[in-house]
């Protein structure tokens, strides 16, 4: 049994794991030389693979995001760990497959037990907690998507500053915040007059301005909820795309453009404070594009699917003077890699005791290491299953009896099932998938009682 499959139980287990994590971080911190970079991770919500200009879109909705790719690297084969929001964010924040701690579905009405609390367990260490231990000022501005209990609030998970909402979606027009969903830390914001994407951009820029001149660096995580529904946007953005006849697509592009404008404000603030070259910037989407409005060309299907359209996402990164500019990376990478890469950028070592599934990409991006960072990538989302090794991908969806096999190098759209022609490859990948799934917890909560437990917090008959 792998050490990381051990289930820690109770307070003592949580405390011991926390001590191991913190001691590992403290020891790593001693190795940090000189000035450490600021870290900014920007996350879009339901953005399509081809919704950004640097991946081929001609909509001209993302000039500032495209600039990140031009000033750094873009990844053609980048993935998230799940085709829906909550689990994929849990993987990003911990650097571990979220299935390891039962976060396999969005928080829903069903629970494994009455005591089950959805969210990243306290025994797991979040990005905020890692960087807090490394001496960084930390902030989360945007969407969290966990259970709304104080111990799950970002303010209790390593983030000095939290401005955003807890659940999976929010109106973009908050106004008097009578429902109390928009929070500043643990407290509801009294009112918010700005369109929410602009409010998140404003707060992110304010955090940079307040921390740029301090003696210690900052880590800023900006998980926008754009362009996730509800699909509403100020007319000033929508008018830019008046030539788009499909109104659903027009609104979606306008929401993307507003988010991009705020990405530009963040970068401008870095430049004005003279710290752009001292900052590692990462941009990606939390899952594949929204099914009716996004452009996932040339991928098959969309959000919610384990075909490429549900899990392959836009992903780019810049660190001027350290990472090469306008560089394309074709090897498979995954959102799990963001955390160890960001930690390594500080000069700290990524400890094996953390049992991260993500990989530090820096040596592969600078040319220090050759080859692929991952031997394979794995996905399990309730009834959806997949594994990728090299160019080969094995996949099975709900109600399917047989596994499908695709060669993504020659068939990125997953149109030609090669399972009958390559039974040995099917067996090889199925063995990998089975070994990984055997290490994972059963889903602990969600929307599907057959998978996530039958206890219903809404007391609705199953």
Automatic annotation (TrEMBL):
Keyword Metal-binding (UniProt): yes
The keyword Calcium is assigned to this record: yes
GO MF annotations in UniProt: arylsulfatase activity; metal ion binding
A Pfam family it matches: Sulfatase
Chain ranges of the Sulfatase N-terminal domain: 37-347
PROSITE patterns: SULFATASE_1, SULFATASE_2
Swiss-Prot/TrEMBL keywords: Calcium, Hydrolase, Metal-binding
Similarity section: Belongs to the sulfatase family.
Protein name: Sulfatase-like hydrolase/transferase
Species of origin: Carboxylicivirga sediminis
Native organism taxonomy: Bacteria, Pseudomonadati, Bacteroidota, Bacteroidia, Marinilabiliales
